[in-house]
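>> received
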Amino acid sequence: MRELLRVEKLRKSFHDLAAVDAIDLQLAVGVLVALIGPNGAGKTTLINLLSGALAPDAGRVIFRGEDITRLPSHLRVRRGVTRSYQVMNIFPRLTVHENVLLPVLARQRRLLRFFSPTSAYTAAVEDADHLLAEVGLFEQRGQAAGQLSHGDQRRLELGIAVAVQPVLCLLDEPSAGMNPVERTIVLELVKKLAHDRQTTFVIVEHDMDVVFSLAERIVVMNRGRILADGTPSEIRENRQVRETYLGEEWVG
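>> returned
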């Protein structure tokens, strides 16, 4: 598989704690990767480093052959790296459609002028409508985003993340706060988007049933380092991973 992103000896410390400790990691094009590990393992810090929300203390991030280690977040977005957050990140007073239209226009280097006729944005409106249909929110397009259910808000956030047509999408607990049915729906949607759009997704997720059923590759972190990296079957059979994180109920 073609390499999309490479991390070399990436390090980030907070006071005396090494949240990310000299990590090496490669990501291939179009693969759905789950990033798992106990609380405090360094998962969110790694996502922050890859997205540009944090600057590393040492190491390099190479994306599509370019060193983006010191590149700010907004310039990484232009190169095709987007993310979602643990805390909901939508515009609750705007409509569902406007929430998606804004990043579509940003991709086109245009601004939304609220008193302009929609005919001025025909192509962008059609693009936003198509994306809302993909994430199952077309019928709610005229509704205020803040009025959506929690699960639908998470789907909207996913739509916002992919509206700029990223090649790498980092999702930090995209199913947080959902019930099991909502969680399965959203993560199945991620799998579909990864396949249909040939987008590489890296997902921080705690539901192991979902992780093992959806992910093509699993990276396990512990204490700022990568404990294991492999296919779901390889991770399931890894005794060190079971002892550290999964528990013995995963034996066999």
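>> Strands lie at 3-14, 17-28, 32-36, 58-63, 66-67, 81-84, 168-172, 200-204, 217-222, 225-230.
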